[in-house]
Amino acid sequence: MIDKEFQELIAKRAMTLLGLAKHISQCQSNKEIMIRPLIGALLSQSTQLEELLDLYGAGNNCQWCGFRSLTAAIKHFSDASYELLHIRYSLPEYRLLPIEQDFARATEETLEFTVNVLKQAASQMLIKAEMLDLPVPSQRLREESYTEDLPPGHLEHHCQTRAIETVAETVTLLTTAFLNLVVESEDIRKASRVKPEKFVSYVRDSVSEEKLRSLELQFHNLQSLYDTYVSGTEAAMLDTDLPVLRGHISVVFHLLRTATLFVHHYERHVKKQQCDSVGRQEPVVRAEVLLDVIMRYSVTHINLYIDCAEHLCHEMLKRYAEVGEIEVSVPPYRGFHVRPSTLIAKIVLHYGSAVQMEMDDEVYDASSPLGLFRANEKINAQKRRWLAAEVVRLKLVEQMNQQSDFNAVVREVVLTLVGQSKLILYEQPLQLPEEPARTEGTLLEKIVEEVARLLAMGKIDVDTKMTAKFIGDKRVLADIKLLAESGYGEDKFGNNISLPDKLTYLRR
After folding, report:
1. Is 470 helix (H, G, I), strand (E, B) or coil?
2. Do 239 and 311 belong to one domain?
3. Which of 148, 192, 295, 319 could lock 303 by a disulfide, CB 3.0 to 4.6 Å apart?
4. pLDDT of res. 401
């Protein structure tokens, strides 16, 4: 490709964008630029020009890389500005729940920031165009072409409302999907609470472009799910919280769009090593300023509105809770110890519905790991009783040599029960305490006490096929049942095993 031919091609194709750049560089106030037709034109023209520049590899050419970088800056910040303008005009329709910050004001301040970056990029682009011998339109674009006078009010709703079979199923579908995204958003929500000195590390790890794009897509899909199955139906009239939830889904999606655009520009054009040629193009925005906008505007408000909607979803689910009960096996490895108790509590807290566990006439709060852990007292007591009964029933002590070493007799009893698949041995070789648990009584009583102590120490275990009953919302119970069928996330030796895809939210 001959350089002169390329220069002539760009001179022709960049004419409109350069005209727009001249227009915004001459605007007296930012309000003249905060107009969607103008911002939309900037976005369209910069996108087309960037693709053409990339087609010829301008980003790797010292003469053209600066011009390409400025084109990208205009593209990114016009895109972000359009998102912010969308938020500004949509706020009255979103019916957002109150938060501790003035979101409307923060949006206006962020819009001022993006427009200032656009003006800076436009001015630099005009300078770069002169250096590259690219003609700039002599006449300023007519201002009346870029106005947005919006009359108040709305058109009348004439379209017939579609009937819906059950509002409960619709609410359950949307709220459950949103709560799953709450878990997926955990990293970005944590990032909203960090101090400025940690902004760089969090944008690198927790708020990377890759993670933001993935989350943005998921929220966009959820918004589409609402618009497909709820918009235009009677569901929104029957449950007025549904439009509120939709507003929160939408505002989080658009905030994620701004975050993705800002982080992309930070990673690609601010942090990245620039061309070292004499005429290299410096970033149009400083790294620390852009990081501050990412974290204090986009990330902070994403967290605040996800938090509001999470509580709203819990309340909505409670209204439509269908109470049922299930009976599941007790975790085979040490009963309701830390792992299974924590996973069950996570399921209950994830949905926000009240669920209780019943066992032997005792009731336990399934949302509390410590509450579930208390059930081990009954489980272990039953295991001890069963173990003692088995030793007596099988006459194991009577069969032993009464003159044998006490520890040898204990080992023999344990190994016999293991051989009959009545015990699980966790320690091999089995190490016994130096002193017996009981010094008085018959040999049978001493053996039973010693085996019970080994059980309490976790050296052995008993599979007594015990069950527990859970009572509460059927949606929550379905996940608890699936967890139980999956071994509560562990095998019989307590090793971690994978959970079904439906329960992946428990692994975060």
Report:
1. strand
2. yes
3. 192
4. 57
The β-bridge partners of 470 are: 326, 357
Last residue of a domain, one of 258, 286, 320: 320
Instruction: Indicate the pairing of strand 362-365 with strand 323-329.
Output: unpaired
- pLDDT of 386 reads 86
Domain span at residue 239 reads 164-320
Long-range contacts of 372-377 (CB under 8 A, 24+ apart): 372/336, 372/340, 372/341, 372/344, 372/345, 373/336, 373/337, 373/338, 373/341, 375/335, 375/336, 375/468, 376/334, 376/335, 376/336, 376/337
pLDDT at 140: 62
Q: How far apart are CA 415 and CA 421, in angstroms?
A: 10
Q: State how many domains the chain has.
A: 3
Is 468 in the same domain as 356?
Answer: yes
pLDDT means per 10 residues, the chain with 508 residues, are 86 95 92 95 97 93 92 97 97 94 97 97 95 86 72 84 80 92 94 91 90 96 92 86 96 98 93 65 88 96 97 93 94 89 95 93 94 91 86 75 72 86 86 81 82 86 87 95 94 87 87
Q: What residues contact 221, with CB distance under 8 A and at least 6 apart? A: none
Is residue 146 domain-resident?
no
Sign of the alpha-carbon torsion through 288, 290, 296, 300: negative
Say if CB 122 and CB 24 are below 8 A apart. Answer: yes
Other CB atoms within 10 Å distance of the CB of residue 358: 16
Residue 312 lies in a domain: yes
Clarify whether residues 306 and 334 are in a common domain.
no
Show contacts of 160-168: CB within 8 Å, 24+ apart: 161/232, 161/233, 161/234, 161/237, 162/232, 162/233, 162/234, 163/233, 163/234, 164/233, 164/234, 164/235, 167/235, 167/238, 167/239, 167/320, 168/320, 168/322
In a shared domain, residues 365 and 486: yes
Are residue 315 and residue 271 in the same domain, yes or no? yes
Partners of 467 in beta bridges = 329
The rounded distance, in Å, linking the Cα atoms of 310 and 181 is 10
| Domain presence at residue 459 | yes
